[in-house]
Design brief:
8-stranded mixed β-sheet, alpha/beta, 5-stranded antiparallel β-sheet, binds aspartic acid
Length: about 450
């Protein structure tokens, strides 16, 4: 179990976009002495038309290595940090760092090195502002030479280091291999650093501070002011994230989940709001029937019919082999007695269609194959669905009343989720019908 005296606080790019945001972050960090380790992103957008420093760094580096004019972009990047230094009256200068960065860009230090400098510089400023020690992520976050993250070695290095440093700022997004080359996680990867630091610090809580007050129960572009999710389990988060609800980087979840560290999504601009807690198990009284509704468009359903397939041993094995041969994974496999359908992302399917058809015909000798290219998947997630009767009835009657034709149903046996396939054009209609029937009937 983690240590209650230690919280790791990760702040996203918009939470650290300018001096005013830095001030909010300081107030948050100082209001709880348990916030001993802070992981910042690079400065993000200050308003909707603005640029993220990370994007500017990629652009600047591209120009530098192609012999184009990079100076103007480099100046724009620098101006972002200089403004923060000036407005906060910090005692640091970044002259030396910018000289090193420029030289490294011209020497072709690599895109990942370039992108990582946004977090690196921001962490130097934040450490100074908070009076915390700066720990370069290149020292503690380990990758192999091919850029694969090494979780156990990282944990070892972090543990050793953090034992000696009670309060520190550790930049997100990057680390280094043994030769000192910088590697980054994929975009949004400071979330991953935050989780990894929480593990290394033996923290009990990983706070992820962003610009929204947690996960919403449904996409706000489809549902006007949906309810917020107060708490959910890691399993529910995985289902929702998989179906397109995003707030956290996917790879940030695993280290926290494995160590039993809860994640708390909070809003830097509204710290009084309670956000969303993601934890291993909810107490029964916290379980609500529906945790969230999410979905994605553009799937294809490949349906295979063969007389007596149910009595042909190994039929499913061969079916799976046909997809495996073509290196494609699928989402669902609803089946009947003589038919089975495989549902997979349409674009990926179409890229490999010919080869998949060849494999299916060769391995299965089916009577018929049909492809439906117009499917959206909508999933309702909620562990509490297990213990409430009548949910399925409300679920299906709401879709019927909204005139949504259901093409496929797949209900996980653990009753954490129920997924339906509908026409792409019915996607939003289905989400609205389900939301108002299951979550806020009073607003229907
Ligand atoms: N700054 C990086 C990005 O924009 C990483 C992060 O913010 O988490 O993707």
């Amino acid at each position: 179990m983690g240590n209650t005296k230690i919280k790791v606080a990760k702040f996203g790019g918009s939470s650290l976009a300018d001096a005013a945001q830095f001030r909010k972050v300081k107030e948050i960090v100082e209001s709880d002495p348990a916030r001993r380790y802070v992981v910042p992103s690079a400065p993000g957008r200050r308003s909707s038309g603005d640029e993220k420093v990370t994007d500017l760094l990629y652009c600047c580096y591209g120009r530098a290595v192609n012999g184009e004019n990079y100076k103007e972009v480099l100046e724009r990047i620098r101006a972002r940090y200089e403004e923060i230094i000036r407005e906060l009256h910090l005692g640091v200068t970044l002259d030396r760092q910018f000289a090193v960065i420029e030289e490294a860009f011209l020497a072709g230090a690599g895109e990942e090195y370039a992108a990582s400098r946004g977090e690196y510089l921001n962490a130097i400023l934040l450490a100074d502002f908070l009076g915390y020690e700066f720990i370069d992520a290149a020292e503690v976050i380990r990758f192999d030479r091919d850029g694969k993250f090494q979780d156990e070695r990282t944990n070892f290095f972090l543990k050793e280091k953090l034992k000696k440093v009670p309060r520190a700022v550790i930049p997100g997004f990057y680390g280094a291999d043994d030769a000192g080359n910088i590697h980054t996680f994929s975009r949004g990867g400071s979330d991953v650093t935050g989780a990894v630091v929480a593990r290394g610090a033996g923290a009990q809580l990983y706070e992820n501070w962003t610009d929204v007050s947690g996960f919403l129960l449904a996409d706000p572009t489809i549902i006007d002011h949906p309810k917020k999710i107060d708490s959910m389990t890691f399993g529910e988060l995985r289902e929702l994230a998989y179906r397109g609800a995003t707030v956290l980087h996917e790879e940030a979840v695993y280290p926290a989940r494995r160590e039993g560290i809860s994640i708390h999504i909070r809003n830097t601009n509204a710290p009084e709001e309670n956000g969303t807690v993601i934890c291993q198990e909810l107490r029964p009284e916290q379980e609500v029937p529906i945790t969230g509704i999410a979905g994605r468009r553009n799937f294809a359903a490949v349906s295979i019919a063969k007389n007596c397939m149910n009595s042909e041993p190994g039929f499913c094995k061969k079916l799976l082999e046909a997809f495996e041969e073509n290196d494609i994974s699928f989402e669902h496999m609803p089946s009947g007695i003589d038919t089975v359908s495989v549902i997979l992302p349409k674009e990926e399917y179409e890229q490999k269609e010919e080869a998949i058809m060849e494999s299916l015909k060769r391995l299965l000798e089916p009577d018929k194959i049909e492809v439906d290219r117009d499917m959206a998947l909508v999933t309702v997630v909620g562990k509490g669905m297990r213990s409430v009767s009548g949910i399925a009835a409300t679920f299906f009657s709401s879709l019927g009343a909204a005139d949504v034709n259901i093409k496929m149903i797949d209900m996980g046996s653990n009753e954490v989720n129920c997924t339906i396939g509908v026409k792409n054009e019915d996607f939003e209609k289905a989400i609205r019908a389900l939301y108002y029937a299951l979550v806020e009937p009073e607003r229907a």
